[in-house]
């Protein structure tokens, strides 16, 4: 584990492969999509995550790059109908998305309707089986007991990832959030952390806590190479 963390701290390429570059600010246009896709290609990010209307543009600019095209579904509130989310997911896949970051209906969770959450997740996975699905839980809006039941319900559908939040509400994601989600999620479900990840130290702390993927709108800032001594003490242990 220490050797893996040391490699990430020293090698921006290895770290970039764990980052989804998010281009989701209100009002993003073709220039932002173009520049973000170029940055993701240059850095070697895992994916670029864009609004549904820009999936086709991102797919065109990322063709042959090895960087996946991701899209948000039900973003940012999740309070659309299952039919609307399914249609949006299908449109995104048709336009070239291979990864879907789907916001759960948080209001349903807070109302105790966990069966609806599972049914919605199952339907989206059933209709878009070719995509990699990341279900966004918006952890900061859920109580501890609600989170437990949400994780159980959504994970039962079999998604590839559970994601901490959209990054639009609450405090920046913390290692404790990732640790909690990792404790609750089945071993086969990966964890994506997102929201306010602004530097290398924060990114490494989240990965150390159990995150498999990170979402950030500023990956270049994260990847600016620091002195490895900032992260490793003389005994070779992460600080």
Structural descriptors:
single chain; 239 residues; alpha/beta; TIM Barrel; 8-stranded parallel beta barrel; 44% helix; 15% strand
Describe this structure in words.
- With about 240 residues, the protein is an alpha/beta fold.
- It has a single domain, classed as Aldolase class I (TIM Barrel).
- It is about 45% helix and about 15% strand.
- It contains eleven helices and eight strands.
- An eight-stranded parallel barrel has the order 1-2-3-4-5-6-7-8, surrounded by six helices.
- Strand 6 (about 160-165), helix 9 and strand 7 form a beta-alpha-beta unit.
- Helix 5 packs parallel to helix 7.
- The longest helix is centred in the N-terminal third of the chain and has 14 residues, at about 30-45.
- The radius of gyration is 17 Å and the shape is globular.
